[in-house]
Amino acid sequence: GNSVTQMEGPVTLSEEAFLTINCTYTATGYPSLFWYVQYPGEGLQLLLKATKADDKGSNKGFEATYRKETTSFHLEKGSVQVSDSAVYFCALRGNFGNEKLTFGTGTRLTIIP
Amino acid sequence: EPEVTQTPSHQVTQMGQEVILRCVPISNHLYFYWYRQILGQKVEFLVSFYNNEISEKSEIFDDQFSVERPDGSNFTLKIRSTKLEDSAMYFCASSLPGQGRETQYFGPGTRLLVL
After folding, report:
1. What mean pLDDT is reported for chain B?
2. Phi, psi of B91 (to 5 degrees)
3. Most buried in the list A37, A64, A74, A78, measured by CB within 10 Å?
């Protein structure tokens, strides 16, 4: 079945540091890939997505590129802010009529001023 | 901006009691989902619902669980006889029909505690 493997946390960075959170996946066919973010006390918010190979999703300074050759969708940001502190989830949605999202374990990110 | 809403935000119940978790999906969405997240664990899919019937369900979604769209706006998850291990955050999600289907929008969740 489908699975997502995500970089274990927690991750602590200083403000303005470069961020990478690794995500790799296993799926048949051509899944869609997502990053969701969960701020403290809130629900899951879609951060960005990519629906086919070599697509780059981007939002709020975050980027991730759908790499089919390495089955990866790593999240990056060039300069993090304290407000980026949250839990980040990588997820995939299969095709062939499979609607459900399969999530990674989540990575807790803390940015210190 | 339209959003998915969920009530209650927190619920405490005794083992063996029935609970109903409520969701109001985004109004023009036609696909509806429930997920749960046990504390410290992954977000797990429970069930998807379309056209007034379940389209997919996971192994977790056994006979103790049911879903319903009782009217044009609400989408509910019922747990008939709660167990301690049902304690989790329950998220509702919805998505558009057609090409927008791949993007699911989540509510803020209901934290269920079974004692």
Report:
1. 92
2. -110, 135
3. A64
- With tokens 């062939």, the residue in question is A96
Helices (H) and strands (E) in chain B, counts: 0, 11
B50 to chain A, minimum CA–CA distance in Å? 11
The predicted pLDDT at position A23 comes to: 97
Cβ distance of B44 and A32 shorter than 8 Å: no
Q: Are the C-beta atoms of residues B80 and B11 closer than 8 Å to each other?
A: no
Amino acid at A69: E
Write down the mean pLDDT value for chain A.
Answer: 92
Alpha carbon distance B91, B111 (integer Å): 9
Residues of B in contact with A89 (CB under 8 A): 43
Partners of A7 in beta bridges? none
Residue of B nearest to A101 (CA): B45
Nearest to A43 among B31, B33, B107 (CB): B107
Could you give the residue ranges of the DSSP H alpha helices within chain B?
none
Q: What is the pLDDT of residue B71?
A: 87
- Are the CB atoms for A21 and A74 separated by under 8 Å? yes
**Helix (H), strand (E) at residue A11:** strand A11-14
How many residues are given for chain B? 115
Neighboring chain A residues of B2 at a CB cutoff of 8 Å: none
